[in-house]
Each structure stands twice: as structure tokens, then as C-alpha cells.
Amino acid sequence: MPPHNLEAEASVLGSLMLDRNAVVRVADFLRPEDFYLDHHAQVFRAALNLYDRADPIDLLTLAAELEKMLVLERIGGHDLWPGPGAADKMLLAQDRIAHCAAGVIARGSLDGYRVGAERRVSGEALQQGR
């Protein structure tokens, strides 16, 4: 099993919804395939698509983009994304995301995640003889 930090992955995704500039800060070194969980990779890919079109990144737009990408049901469907009661779910999710992101940033886990991703890329390059 490759090294991974699911909390850091979730925090990165949460930060994309809280701070539009977060995409700019991670897009240079983080790719969808860097995520351990496929559903995290799909959400990141959807966020990049939204950013490229200058659309807002939030739970509603991510759900719509994931549906457009034909992956929403595969990663949990509407049970995990907005539907009836979406406003309440969004407020609760944003509160949880902010709390989790603050904790990860305070502990420096995002830097550790970046370093881990860089090491993984370097390791892959070594294996391929680069």
C-alpha cells in the first residue's frame, strides 16, 4: 500500500471550497492521480474543471460537475452530495471541512502531503531510470 494521508486529502479538497485561490496553490504539484482514494481524485478533477471554467467551487457545483463527468453515482451518488436539505448539508459540511482543514494546516500536514507526493514522484522516476 503506497503512503497516504486521507485526512490531508480531505482537507485539500475542503480548502478548494473555502478558498478559491487554494486551487492555484496546489495545481502545480498535485494531480488527481496523487490521491489515494479514487473518489478524492474525481472530486479534485471536478474542482479543476470548475476552476478552468472560472465557475465557483462548492458542494452544489461539484455535485453537478461530478454528474456531468458521469462519476457521481460511482463515488457515492446523491447520498454524499446535495439533494433535499442541501443548504443544511452544505453548512454542516463546510463547518466540518473548515475545522478539519484548520487542524491539518496547524500541524503542517499539507506540507507533509506535498513532500510525500514529491517523494513518490521521485521514486517513480528512479524506478523508470530517470
What does this structure look like?
The structure is a single chain. Helix content is 68%, strand content 0%. By secondary structure, the chain is mainly α.
Shape by Cα distribution: globular
Count of structural domains:
1
The CATH superfamily appears as DNAb Helicase, Chain A
What is the helix content? 55-70%
Secondary structure tally, helices: 7
Detail the topology: elements first, then pairings:
Blueprint: H1 6-18, H2 22-27, H3 38-52, H4 59-68, H5 77-80, H6 86-107, H7 109-127
Summary keywords:
single chain, 130 residues, mainly alpha, DNAb Helicase, Chain A, 0% strand, disordered C terminus
Quick structural gist:
Helices cover 68% and strands 0% of the residues. With 130 residues, the chain is an all-alpha fold. The longest helix is centred in the C-terminal third of the chain and has 22 residues, at 86-107.
